[in-house]
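Researcher: We plan to redesign the surface later, but first we want a full-length starting point. Tokens attached.
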């Protein structure tokens, strides 16, 4: 039996890819972000602090990708490395994420891989059973 929400890695020829699923858009964005972070982080490090980010777009897919991109920009813009995420609210045009972070100087021991970007390649949020599912490709 598959859980109501979660994520899994998928095979992709050159990049990284995940599938995420959840009962609603808030949960779907959260699971996609958790899946992305799982590709970036080894182990289960504890965050030192939390930061709030907002992603937005003209539709649910753009909002999801914008949230992922905002999380990916943390190391470059704030010298913070994401280790966990919760999405506190979301609709088709905006989502608010609370991201647990560690200083980038402390991330060397936990960094598993470098993701350059979340892409729009074949992204489509689909209804499945009683929830939503999406596949996201990441440039590495």
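Model: Full-length starting sequence:
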């Amino acid at each position: 039996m598959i859980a109501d929400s979660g994520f899994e890695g998928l095979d992709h020829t050159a990049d990284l890819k995940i599938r995420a699923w959840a009962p609603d858009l808030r949960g779907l964005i959260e699971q996609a972000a958790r899946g992305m972070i799982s590709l970036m982080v080894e182990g289960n490090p504890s965050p030192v602090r939390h930061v709030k980010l907002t992603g937005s777009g003209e539709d649910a897919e753009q909002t999801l990708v914008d949230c992922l991109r905002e999380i990916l920009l943390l190391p470059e813009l704030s010298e913070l490395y994401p280790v966990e995420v919760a999405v506190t609210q979301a609709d088709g045009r905006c989502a608010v994420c609370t991201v647990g972070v560690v200083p980038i100087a402390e991330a060397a021991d936990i960094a598993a891989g470098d993701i350059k970007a979340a892409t729009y390649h074949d992204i489509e949020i689909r209804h499945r059973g009683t929830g939503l599912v999406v596949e996201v490709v990441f440039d590495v």
